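Mods, move this if it's the wrong board.
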Amino acid sequence: MQFTLIDFNDTGIRVSNGEQLILNSPGYAVIKDNQIAFGETAARLTHIYPRATHSDFWYKLGQDAIHSVSNEIRHNADLAFMHLTEINEQSGKPLSWLIAVPASFNREQLALLLGLLSAANFHKVKLVDSALLASASILNHGKSLHLDIQLHQTVITEIECGNNNTVINSETSTELSVLGVYEQCAKLISEAFIDQSRFDPLHNAETEQLLYEKIPAHLASLSNSSTVDFNIEYHGQSHHAVISRDAIIKKITPFYQAIKKKIGNTSQLIVSHRLQQLPGFLDDIENTILLDEHAVFTGIKHYTQFIFDTDSSTNYLSELPSLTNKKNTQNQTDQIKKNRKITHVLISNTAFQLTNQHYFFTENHQIQESQNSDTCYSIYLNNKNWHLQSANDKTVILNDTVITEKTPLNLGDTIKTSKQKNTVTFIEVK
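Not the wrong board. Structure tokens:
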């Protein structure tokens, strides 16, 4: 099965084709002079144009109005859609996608994400929990905690391993975040530059940008070194400051404590490569399993057939068969399929939750309160399953077949009408 895999983390949305990383696009957007830059391009401008920078549109994904200098941008979903469109184009518009999504997305955000993916022309999409996928090959029987960090928060995902590996709980904490750590480190480093070189890199936007660009690699180097030499070239002059590991740890340790209180004395703690790059975070933590940066990409090897054999094209999987019970994989696959139900209908770029017993649609897929002369088809619940019924002798096409009588609906089914090329899709959002 040919597909392209995304590890969805706003520190860097990584796209892989097999084992080859083809794109890394951080969750930044900079709007300047009616132009919008995303990803690495935007990341190199964030401190030069701080007021034009958006870094929280994935963290706060939604349709609430935001302040923007562009008429094209009304809310964070607009920025997310544009970012996804660019990622799709830069990846070569693959025909099939598997997207590893963190548990930090709530139900409403996940439904919106599904709609945005459809609107951005992501075809044949499968979604799976990223912590589950990354941890699959190292999970032991019982409960584990997976830790990962994003631009604005840390995500704690609780996974239970039995016959299946299942995400049973998730929690986020804004006390520890990538941008928060970088800000504290920048203050410390700036003070060191002033003391050692009589140079303040935070006084000028260009040198501030240079400083922030160096922080990630230098922090990672402090995992194995006691000091690091920061060097900033500006206007032909070289400025240096030596920073100690102990000083950095002292500065950011208070932000670690909130997370460490939440994880307690868990018997198995799984830590992402992103958190491992923060010096001192692991110093007093026991029972840790460290994931490498390829964990999500290698984890899919165990589940490709299972995931792409499932019925729905847009379901978010938070349960996978345990690799310690491979002989039962097919039975588990059948059981998971049996237990899955339609929860939403995806119309254009919006996923609508189905809560009532009966819905009526026009030929343009607009939902009506009751049936009238404009009604083209309706869907309704019967014995806990959704069914489709055409109305007013209108043409309704279910999965490329014209229907004339009541028909049961399944996950992944699509509906078209004679006057509308766009389709609606029936999906599950857990």
